[in-house]
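Form 7-S
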Amino acid sequence: MDTNTNSTRSNRGFDNCTDCAIVYDKWSNNTNSLKDNTDWSFEPRPEVKGDVARMLFYMAVRYEGYDGYPDLELSETIMPSTDNTPFHGILSTLLEWHRNDPVDSWEENRNNIIYYDYQDNRNPFIDHPEIAEHLWGDKTGINWPEMPLDIVEFNNASIKIFPNPTSAYVIINGLNKATLIEIYDAIGRKVISKELNMYEEKINVTQLNGVYTFKLTQGNSVIIKRIIVN
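Output:
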């Protein structure tokens, strides 16, 4: 764990820095993140700015003060290091990061792993990024169109992926129409993506080695499976 970067970030708010200092990890590598020497703020590296914003959006709607936890709110103020008020900013900067660094396949895969393997809970700002605009952005006051925010599994019991473990091929049985399959490695990189029809069942995985996440998608419905390739 990079304890140095975690310690540097501390409880700083998030914003674009003006009096910037480079953040180095505990191995003395440049993390491409910045801290502000004047304000108590932190600017993460560009490729995760949107990820950070969507995490904060989730926290803001998750913690409303009804269950014994603080009511976390996003604000336009960077709080000093000694202030424990549950405000986090800068909201306008987070919206800017959210727009400029949209959801990618790595973030989608992480959201699926958290949902299926750990929390049984999703970040809706990853599944539907436009919600942020309706809550805080340029669509405030405009009703959110009625549609489900969760991902509904399609007949999970009927889909069989085998053998597991495997070393050469994976067979997929139970598809009843065209399905997108995406395969991710252990750090979230997409290594295979292809459309399957109901007659195409065999996936060549001889070039893979390790634990992989298989994501099958039909419309808005998703199935996630873990496969070991050795």
